[in-house]
Amino acid sequence: MPNKKIKKTDLSITIILIIGIIAVVNFFSYQVFHRFDLTQNKVYSISKVSKKAVEELDDTVNIKAYFSDNLPSQVLALKQEVADILDEYAAFSKGRIRVEFISPGTDEDTQRELYMAGIPQLTFQVYEKDQMQLVNGYMGILVGHGDKTEVIPAVKSDTSDLEYQLTTAIKKVTVDEIATIGILSGNETLSLERGGMSTAYQELQSLYTVLPVELDEDGALIPESIDTLIIAGPKKEFSENQLKAINSFLARGGSVLLLIDGVTIGQGLVASKNASNIDTLFAKYGIKLNKDLVADQRSGVASFTQGFMTFSSNYPFWPKVVSEGFNKDNSAVANLESVLLPWASSIETESGKIDPEQVTQLIFSSGKSWRVQDNFNVTPNIGLKPAGEPRSYDLAVSITGTIPNAYPEGSDNENIRARLIVVGDSDFITDNFLQQSPDNLTLFQNLVDSLSLDEDLINIRSKSVSSRPIKEDLSDGTRATLRYLNVFGLTLIVILFGLLRYYMRKRSRFIDEL
After folding, report:
1. Cβ atoms 208, 182 nearer than 8 A
2. What positions does the domain DUF7088 occupy (predicted)?
């Protein structure tokens, strides 16, 4: 009996202590704000960039989240996720961000205002009383500061990029200008007129002012308003005056993103060396754009049609770059996991013309790749084998610093300070390949951001990249083991914990009975 009384007393004291600890922790949680996120890329908490952006606000920013009350049950959790994210913004802003959740209801004036602001009414399928019904509702966010507003028309079911959208919107309404991007539209480049890069174009417009730039044969100067010039997939020769205009743009402090195919692929997979001569300009800077194709044993899967049959297979001419193929010291690519670069060409730099310390290798193929320089047979059914010893090749490089002035005549400067990125492929940003490899779009946006902005926003967009393929060099047995552990591992852990708990309780009872 005495032992039982002692145990009851100990239990009461323990309960009182636990309640006291909870009360103290609860008190200090209001005094010291902090959230713990144990995921690798901190995908469930806002990044240091966003915290800094809202901490430095000097005026109030209003965020209005329009969520209807009649939303189906499957999106109610989404509303809570959005609320949690907005709570973090408000907490770190020291009161300068005001968050308001609004249910538009059926008021026609409110619905009209939302329509004019760019927040559409969405239609959801709801199952009620064994019948499918259609319900209208809103899931949009409006960010306002003064007379400026930015809109997130509809929150996606996957909120991984919501932080990027919110921080971008806050920056856009609180600063006078971010940057203006020019896209070269002549010389048979990829453009909206030729089609192929509409998705990439739309994504750029969400952050930047985007303008078409066309250089006539006389090489009219690129407008002063352009901060970064994108030259994507040119296939036609440039006149000397056009090349001079690009050089002048770099000399005055502009940035250039060149996406260039060393080999062009036409109808029927007919391959030929690219006729564009823009490589001659970059050769003067010390960047050699090889007119070759890089084949890699680590490759993407392509689908081909022969007669009435369609088949899919790994295609070496579509190098697949995974984590170890990205420069981990450069924020534009450090957090990427997997991109596909179809029919990519290799890039070399000449140390005699440019300081190697100013060159950053951004992307490189695996050590099991090789080059094809002539007799381009890219049909999928050939028995393609490595030509020579396999090795890694640079597929994208960045130059920041002093480069030779390609046209020093009439100028006092033999060298110019420049920021430019060269990628040995342009197909990766076309709509077809963005559907197959969505991370390609993140790569493109990051490259543009690294030339046009401070590198803040890159880290937000990249942190949620989720493609994590199993390494190709693992054996089949190891891969199978990893798959089974992934499927059944957690269940086994729970079962083992339950058995251990059962054993400990049984042992404790046995000791008490003694």
Report:
1. no
2. 40-143
Q: Which residues contact 323 (CB under 8 A, 6 or more apart)?
A: 336, 337, 338
319-337 pLDDT tens trace: 999 989 999 888 888 878 8
Is 479 or 295 the better-scoring residue by pLDDT? 295
Q: Cα separations (Å) of 439 from 134, 293, 369?
A: 33, 22, 22
Query: Which CATH fold would you assign to the domain 180-462?
Result: Rossmann fold (3.40.50)
Q: Is 425 helix (H, G, I), strand (E, B) or coil?
A: coil
Measured between alpha carbons, how far is 199 from 202 in angstroms, rounded to an integer? 5
Q: How confident is the model at residue 203 (pLDDT cuts 50, 70, 90)?
A: confident
Contacts of 402 (CB under 8 A, 6+ apart): 354, 355, 358, 415, 416, 417, 418
Percent of the chain exceeding pLDDT 90 equals 35
State the Cα angle at 140 between 83 and 94, rounded to 5°: 40
In the predicted structure, residue 380 carries a pLDDT above the cut 80: no
CA distance 456 to 446: 10
The CATH H-level superfamily of 48-174 is Glutaredoxin (3.40.30.10)
Which bin fits 84, alpha (ψ -120 to 50), beta or left (φ > 0)? alpha
- Compute the mean pLDDT over every residue in the chain, rounded to the nearest whole number: 83
Report residue 210: phi and psi, to 5°. -115, 125
Amino acid symbol at 333:
V
Hey, what are 464's tokens? 């949620």
Q: Please check whether residue 320 is in contact with residue 366, taking contact to mean a CB–CB distance below 8 angstroms.
A: no
Q: What pLDDT band is residue 63 in, cutting at 50, 70 and 90?
A: very high
The residue ranking higher by pLDDT, 486 or 232, is 232
C-alpha to C-alpha distance for 207 and 451, rounded to whole angstroms: 14
List of residues 6+ apart from 505 with CB closer than 8 A:
none
User: 115-150 b/e with 16+ CB inside 10 Å = b?
Assistant: eebebeebebeeeeeeeeeeeebbbbbbbbbeeebb
- Cβ-Cβ contacts under 8 Å for 154 (sequence gap 6 or more): 119, 120, 122, 139, 140
Task: Please name the residues in contact with 208: beta carbons below 8 A apart, sequence gap of 6 or more.
Answer: 178, 179, 180, 181, 448, 452
| CB atoms closer than 10 angstroms to residue 380 | 17
**120 vs 4, more confident:** 120
Instruction: Enumerate the domain spans of the chain.
Output: 1-32, 48-174, 180-462, 475-514
* Other Cβ atoms closer than 10 A to 249: 23
* pLDDT tier, 289 (very low <50, low <70, confident <90, very high otherwise): very high
Report the candidate in 343, 207, 220 with the shortest Cα–Cα distance to residue 271: 343
Distance CA 146, CA 472 (A): 53
